[in-house]
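quick q for whoever's on today - can somebody do inverse folding on this one?? i tried earlier but teh output was garbage lol. tokens:
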């Protein structure tokens, strides 16, 4: 398997880097489609629109935000 799209978001913590700045870094090293979507739960929903599997990678803060939103 390989990655065909990257959806960038950020956790709800003031110390996190902006999603747009992360997307710019990613754009400098790949030519795949990159979307910026906030908040994190919307980014997950956006990723699910493209099918599965969906890989979520990030900090414990991001996972915490998703866990809280998903219940």
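ok took a stab at it. sequence:
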């Amino acid at each position: 398997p390989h990655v065909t799209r990257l959806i960038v978001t950020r956790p709800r913590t003031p110390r996190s880097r902006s999603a747009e700045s992360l997307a710019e870094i990613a754009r400098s090293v790949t030519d795949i489609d990159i979307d910026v979507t906030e908040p994190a739960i919307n980014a997950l929903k956006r990723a699910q629109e493209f099918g599965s599997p969906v890989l979520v990678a990030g900090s414990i803060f991001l996972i915490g935000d998703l866990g809280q939103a998903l219940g």
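fwiw Residues 9 and 39 are 7 Å apart (CA to CA). also Helices lie at 19-27, 40-48, 60-70. so keep that in mind when u check it
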